[in-house]
Amino acid sequence: MADVPNVKLTPLPSPNVDLTPITTAISKVAEDVVRTITRDTVPSLLTQQVEESLKKMVPGLVEAAVSEEKVLIKETVQETARKALPDLLKPMVELLAKEIIEKVVRDVVAAKAEAAVKKEIERLTAEA
Predict the structure, then answer these.
(1) What ranges do the domains of the chain cover?
(2) For 76-103, what is each residue's pLDDT tens digit?
(3) Could you give the C-alpha distances from 105 to 7, 78, 91, 93, in angstroms and in order?
C-alpha cells in the first residue's frame, strides 16, 4: 500500500473487546500446565487441594494479565484497521464513483440530447 500524502487519519473509537474467550482459553491452558506439573511433583494427598486452589486463582491471574494488555490490544486493533481500511475501501470507492459517473452521464447526456433533438426539430419545422 502506497503512502498517501496530506491525509490525516482520524483515531478510531476504542474497540469494545470482550476478552472473556481469550481469558478462558488462557486459563484452561494454564490450568492444564500447572495440573501436569502438580501431578508429577506433588504427593497425591495434596493434588485435589492444589487443583481446587488453582481453579480459583488462575482465572483471576490471567484476567489481570490480559487486562493489563488492553492498551496494546487497542493499539494493535487500531493499527491493523488503519493499514487495512485503504485497501478495503479503494474498490468500493472506485465502484461507487463509476456508478455515479455512469448515472450522471446516462441522465444528463440523455436529457441534453433530447433537448438538442427537440430544438433541431423545432428549427427544421420552422424552416419548412
Answers:
(1) 1-68
(2) 878 887 887 787 778 888 888 888 888 8
(3) 30, 39, 21, 18
